[in-house]
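Following up on my earlier message about adenosine-5'-diphosphate. Here are the inputs again, as you asked, copied directly from the submission form:
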Amino acid sequence: DHVTTDMATLSQEVQKFAEGKKLEIEALKVRDSYRKEFMGNISHELKTPLFTVQGYIETLLDGAMNDKKVRQQYLERAAKGVERLVYIVRDLDMITKLETGDLRLKQEAFDIVELIQNVFDLLEMKAAKKNISLVFETPYAPLMVKADKERIQQVVTNLLVNSIKYGKKDGTTEVSIQEHSKKKIIIKVSDNGEGIQKEHIPRLFERFYRVDKSGSRKEGGSGLGLAIVKHLLEAHKERIFVTSTFGMGSEFSFTLKKAKKTAVVTDKSGVV
Ligand code: ADP
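Thanks, got it. Here's what our run produced:
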């Protein structure tokens, strides 16, 4: 009788083990198809700018070089293509680091108001090209937060670049800061641009996901900007929210930890 019970237990164990292995194999299969899809996406992303650069260089070598004006124009376009490649590779590098957990975050106290103003300065020209006004309102100045400054600069930059890219001509991009909880603030980046249809919203943060592929490529997007934003904020244990009305505009907001012992100073003017 003992032996039979033991055999039954053993057979149960074997079955459990086999089921465990089956699940492991399934997980590996999913990961493998994910990896294959990623590789496919990468080569697809790189192909377009590479072929562009190749085309201009070949045309130059075939004789277009002799015309000074054409030479200048083609070299500029080739340089633009190379610049795009550099951006894509940089974004790929970042997403890989984030997904493999190879990115070490600093925890430093810095003034988020100053950081946003710096990003505004850097993007002024880009906004001016579409006559988009950049508006920043905050009742707080300075406002010390605790995070990795360089990475948060990237988050703010990606969100602002998107609001300009997908913002309408003569439109407005607005950044505001509000209190979120005792320990957190929330930064909102909103535009009155094209907006996003509801069904796309849950997928926006997937790498390479775009609502309008040709539109995004034309604007020089890699499709990785929001995936990087989400990963960076998750690594900080912070959250991101999106609200959007198609045809009206979008708002992306994210939380940040206040630096300890920092009383939020209110400058009643409300505008910095
Ligand atoms: P991309 O390089 O294509 O801009 P992102 O990951 O930054 O990649 O964004 C993914 C997609 O989300 C974009 O292609 C665009 O369709 C949509 N999107 C992002 N930000 C906005 C915005 N402010 N307004 C409208 N659509 C947006």
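One observation from looking it over: The mean pLDDT is 90. Hope that helps, and feel free to reply on this thread.
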